[in-house]
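Format notes (please read before filing issues)

Several people have asked whether sequences and structure tokens are stored in separate files. They are not. Every record keeps both together, in the order shown below: the sequence lines, then the token lines. Line labels are part of the format and must not be stripped during preprocessing.
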Amino acid sequence: MEIYLARHGETEYNKTRRIMGQMMVPINETGREQAKKLAVALKDKGITAIHSSDLTRAIETSEIIGAELGLTFEAYEELREHGVGKLEGVTWALEYENMTLEEFDELMVKEDGELTDIFVVRVWKIFLEIIEKHEKDDKILILSHGGCIRVILMKILRSTLDIFSILQLGNCCINKIIYDEEAKNYKFKVDLVNDMSHLKI
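Then the structure lines:
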């Protein structure tokens, strides 16, 4: 199975470095152009199913891709970005990048956000459930958010939460996972990460 993981198109909040979390923020004109280019890049991949976050920015990106590929999509609340409570809409601060996991989760408690472990379990669970819906020769697209893609890659790579600070994922980037359910040890293999070459065309 080939699994493509893509991030939504740019929003004004991305552009101004404001935290979206689970806010219903639409993509902007740049985001729409990115989504169109992503759709063209995916058109010859043989994708037969699209699974999307149910947040506005993901839905709008999925609609553009679906129209190009001639596919409808299924939306999931479980594919939403990390919920950060009262920090949603706040301008991103450098201090957040330098926090330890313990400090970040203390902040989540204070701001009524989602604890990191809960976020990780939520995303990985729905990812596995989506995989179970498909046959071994299927090629699928999961359209979600930077945090969700990092969770999936972290679990596959058996990495740590440091991946959230280290791995850059641009809007409408393509990541590709190969899944072989018959493999003895490593069923998932990472084939491509943060490919944005299609956006330069």
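For reference, the curators noted about this record: The radius of gyration is 16 Å. The chain has one domain: 2-200.
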